[in-house]
TrEMBL record:
<keyword id="KW-0418">Kinase</keyword>
<keyword id="KW-0808">Transferase</keyword>
<protein>
    <submittedName>
        <fullName>Diacylglycerol kinase</fullName>
        <ecNumber>2.7.1.107</ecNumber>
    </submittedName>
</protein>
Length: 122
């Protein structure tokens, strides 16, 4: 096992993981489209810097949660391809993490829409 590699090599591994998830994981691709949609939405409502910051942090957390969920799923499939209640628990918790962040995202969109139509997006 090679440890403590230079930062540029670790960045290359990270980009490889990102690319792999974008190619092979439909949920990750859907979240990338949601990120694009969120950016267009923020431009449309002329959101303040505060909203931009909040939305970008949330989207980064969502993408990171999906990547970690994919990592958990891959390891779970390696360790136990057959049905196992602990694998179900691990995968369900990973999915729940993504679900929590997506739900917050939907609420943020609703809040911003409400503010846009009832008092300007500030
Ligand atoms: N080996 C297993 N043992 C027990 N339950 C499993 C197993 N594999 C999958 N499951 C159950 O099926 C659900 C879906 O698992 P799956 O691996 O198909 O994820 P997925 O739908 O591909 O998720 P994602 O869309 O995030 O990739 C899990 O949340 C879990 O409840």
């Amino acid at each position: 096992m090679i440890k403590n590699q230079p930062i540029w090599r670790r960045a290359r591994y990270a980009l490889r993981g990102f690319g792999m998830a974008a190619r092979e994981e439909a949920s990750f691709r859907a979240e990338l489209w949601a990120l694009l949609g969120a950016v267009l939405f923020l431009i449309w409502v002329q959101a303040s810097l505060w909203w931009w910051g909040l939305a970008l942090v949330l989207m980064a957390m969502l993408l990171a949660a999906e990547l970690l969920n994919t990592a958990v799923e891959s390891l779970a499939d390696l360790v136990s391809p057959e049905f196992h209640p602990l694998v179900a628990r691990a995968k369900d918790c990973g999915a729940a993490a993504v679900f929590v962040l997506s739900t917050v995202g939907v609420f943020l969109v609703l809040l911003l829409l409400w503010q846009h139509f009832h008092g300007g997006a500030r």
